[in-house]
Structures are given as structure tokens and as C-alpha cells.
Amino acid sequence: MKSRLQEEESMVEVLAQITAHLQTEQVEHIQELLNRLRDAVLNSLAIDEEKEQENIRLYNKLSGEIRSSLAQSTRSFQELEAHFDQKEFELNSKKLAVREVGETLQDRNDQRQFILDRVQEAQKLLNDNLDRIARWSVESE
Prior knowledge:
Blueprint: H1 4-19, H2 24-140
């Protein structure tokens, strides 16, 4: 494989051979065209280099913004997840508290019913005793 220097030397040799058969004006014209071509190529390379550097800067900027956005999204997700975990814990605690209150109310209702049942039994006994006393009074008269 030829090096770049060897390629340029070969091109110069070819040009030297071609220009040997041309008149001075034509050689000068060809040199002027070649100089313009070289300048255009160098200018194009410089522009390409600038564009490549700008693309690299843009890529780095966008990559940084994406990483930053991703990190912020991850933090937000973690905060939301922690918030929902806390709310779920609070909800479960409140459900347990409501269940305990319900059980306490049921126990109190059971106790009230027990007392009510005893009061009704006592009233029945009292009524029975009053009936007996009333019958006994009627019988003793």
C-alpha cells in the first residue's frame, strides 16, 4: 500500500510529464486551477472539521441532557414510589384501626345486648313477681 507521500510524488511526476509538453501559459493556467482546487479542498476539509466538532459538541450536550433527564426521572420515580409506599402503609394502618374500632363497637354492642337481655329477664321476673303478689293479694282478701 502506498503512503500518502508516495501518492503525491507520483502525481507530481505525472503532472511534470504532462506539463513538459504544454506551453507556459497553459502550465500557469493548470497551476492556477490546481491551486484553486487545493484551496477548495483545504477549505472543504476545514468546514468538515468545524461541522464534525460542532456535531461532537451537540452530541455531548444532548447526551448530557438525556443523562440528566434520565437521572431526574429516576429520582422522581423513586420519590413517587416512596410516597405511594408510605400512603399504602398509612392506608393499611387505617384499615387496621377501622377494623379494631369495628371489633370494639361489636364487643360493646354484644355487651349492651347482654345487659338488655338481663334487664328484660329482670323485668319479666319483676312482672311475674308482681302478678304473684297481685294474685296473692286478691286471694288473701
